[in-house]
Input
Amino acid sequence: MKNNDELRDELSNSPFLKKMKEQPGPKGVNEVFQVPKNYFQHLPNEVMRKVKEPTFAPVQQSSWLEQMEQFVQGLLQPRYALTLASVVVLVVASVVFFKDKNATSILPAVAEVTLEDISDEELFAYVSDNISDFNRQQMLEATGPELPEVKIQPKAPKLPKTKATQPNLEEMEKYLDEEIDDIDLEDLEAIF
Amino acid sequence: MIPNSEIVDDRILSLLREGGSHAESGFRLLMEQYQERLYWQIRRMVYDHEDANDVLQNAFIKVYRSSHTFEGKSKLYTWLYRIATNEAITFLNKKKQRLATPLDAGESTLANRLRADDHFDGDEAQRKLMAAIETLPDKQRQVFNLRYFDEMNYADMSELLGTSEGALKASFHHAVKKVEAHVTK
Output
């Protein structure tokens, strides 16, 4: 009784709750929920049956598929979905970023082509087009010891070509007669 | 409180410790002694009878499997109540995740559910009361239910919930104000 009086005092400023609490009959607050007939008589047997099962499963134990479905549905809730979306954006951005970085780093590797990969015709065409960029030392170093060493003989200066392949003796004598006075004796001795 | 409950508790624990068929008798006695109190405590948390039935059966199965771990430091009902409450809270959390119900839709969802519930025999005022109680935080709702419906005194509630009597009185006072404001707005 003392406990009831205390509770009534605690509800003195709450007319709705006080009225509901004092409502008599089967519509009182403790009777608003109904229970199936004989539920409490059958419940102990039902529990004992489950307890005695060799591998009893808890009631409503969900399968892995249902658990996975629940997990996915949980992820679709706004607070988790926003986090998940942010993570996905970060992952995609990082993949794109590193992909670009890798693409640029491939370029030097492509440039590193060995001479063996280039045909002789291409090499010859390149050297011909850029011959002015090479000096003799570079050419020798590039060819290496495989080529035989060739001694380069200085060539005699070429004389201008004349139409007359056979000297005309009369003209030569005439030329010498005209020029003989201008030639010193010492020069003649040096020639012969 | 149930008269001679401590004598019955001693008998139950004695049978459970003996094992074999005695343990089964002890467990049956335990269920018969506490099933209705536990059921209503759970029912006020989950509202639906089928849900309450599932939660209570799972709670009893856990009690059976872990009865050897009960050391007798608290009352038997306190131990049972904690197991049943934890089971109900776990059930509600899973249900919330499954349904992904928006928080502000709680009242209308519950009100609709109660209207469609064949096992709910209340009128509109009682539906409003249930909907108002559901808006309370879990711990505050537990305190309100134990005090308002079960009329449990604060000393027993303190042992049951592990909270000081002063804190429980304050919690019930705030819960009453919230419920009253909710149903009269």
Summary: Chain A is about 60% helix and 0% strand. Chain A has a mean pLDDT of 73. The two ends of chain A are 161 Å apart (CA to CA). The CA atoms of residues 64 and 70 of chain A lie 10 Å apart.
